[in-house]
Amino acid sequence: MIENARLAKPTTNNQETNNQQLIANCMRKNELDWLRVILFALLIIYHVGMFFVPWGWHIKNNVIYPALRYPMLFLNQWRLPLLFVISGMGTYFALGKRTPRLFAAERFTRLMVPLLFGMLFIITPQVYFERVAHGEFSGSYFDFYPSQVFTQGAYPEGNLSWHHLWFLPYLFLFSVVWLPVFLYLRRHPQNFLSGRIGRWAATPWGLFRLVVPLYLWEALVEPFFKSTHALVGDWFNLINYGTLFFYGFVLIGVGEPFWHTVRTHRRKYLAGGLVLFASMVGLRELFNDSTAIHFIEALLKVLNLWCWILTLFGYASAYLVHRNAFLEYANEAVYPFYILHQTVLIVLAFHLVHVSWGLAPKFVVLAAGTFALCLMIYELAIRRWSFVRPLFGLRNKGKVT
After folding, report:
1. Alpha-carbon dihedral angle through residues 131, 336, 109, 346, given to the nearest 10 degrees
2. Which among 242, 243, 224 is positioned nearest to 233, based on CA atoms?
3. Is residue 401 part of a domain?
């Protein structure tokens, strides 16, 4: 489609402008699709790592490796923030092709239907293996499901949970809450906010003004509302991720000035991210918690995550602008993989807890096994079945090949 757009001969200045915008939009979607696929692949790797680090998780290995928390911390600082920014950008494109009513209906169908299905059938095996591993239940899964899932209340005291699918209700909430604002911004492209951010985006450090709200949330809200992913009462995550989701929508609307800046200055952002991450780790290792250290650490954290977000957008804009068969396949598969992966991982991990292997063999088996089993389930039980696809957030496109 990009090549056809480039070869089309414009007949008017307006048509030439429209063709150029079409090319730019196609390239931007390619970059976002690549980043989305990469981020969800990293999510699987990250969750494999959670089996081995000291941080709390559903099932833990018989040997813990504290040093592994440093690469985990590196991923953790920018992985979810970037994903919410990309989701806001995707919302910009979705609203351009749908009425507000159709947009809201599609968001519900593609987010809340998989969430409900996932809570009833995908998450419950995770809770079962966790209870068995901790000695809190004995018996088969078929004994557990009817007697424990619906009678004990919500997790962690009970057994009904959305676990890693917490991202879906948050994304749905942001899509609905921000919808009136997004509609206004799309219908009034010359609005003050877009113009101001567009001017900021024209300079290498101008976009760092957007860090100010993130710093306020990190410094003043996070200490009082720790992350729970429970939606209700999870005020820091709601405010923080909601802001990043909004930033994504506005930045994609700015257009080429944003992409030109991050592409041109990506090496500066990379250097900044490396220095800031090292400084943040050093601060945590050298100093005890205090009010002053908290405010310094909060500043380093938000500057660090913003540097990495701009870095990754910059390198994607430079190198990930083309589509190929792998991206087409992976871009559709990524949602089912996201829904399935943690259940597959926990089932595999349950059977490896007490195996006397080292870190590397277990990590490789868990990562490769999770990808392979998710691929098998996707190919055999999801991709080709029109009545199953909506349960995993996929559109039906007629015959699937």
Report:
1. 10
2. 224
3. no
Listed as ranges, residues in the chain with pLDDT below 50 are: 1-23, 399-401
CA angle 5, 9, 12 (to 5 degrees): 110
Does 21 reside within a domain? no
Q: What is the CA radius of gyration of the chain?
A: 22
Q: Within 10 Å of residue 358's Cβ, how many Cβ atoms? A: 9
> Residue 357 phi/psi, 5° resolution?
-105, 165
In DSSP notation, 339-355 reads HHHHHHHHHHHHTTTT-
H or E element in which residue 227 lies: none
Give the pLDDT confidence of 125-153 residue by residue, as tens digits. 999 999 999 999 999 999 999 888 988 88
Reduced to 3 states (helix: H, G, I; strand: E, B; else coil), residue 399 is coil
Number of domains observed in the structure of the chain = 1
Closest residue by Cα to residue 2 from 38, 36, 26:
26
Phi, psi of 4 (to 5 degrees): -60, -40
Q: Let me know if residue 38 belongs to a domain.
A: yes
For 167-177, the pLDDT digits (tens) are 999 999 999 99
Which residue range(s) make up the domain with 359? 30-392
CA distances from 177 to 100, 185, 222 (A): 12, 14, 21
On whether the pTM is more than 0.70, the answer is: yes
CB 221 within 8 A of CB 239: yes
Please answer whether residues 281 and 71 qualify as being in contact, where contact means their C-beta atoms are separated by less than 8 angstroms: no
Which amino acid belongs to residue 399? K
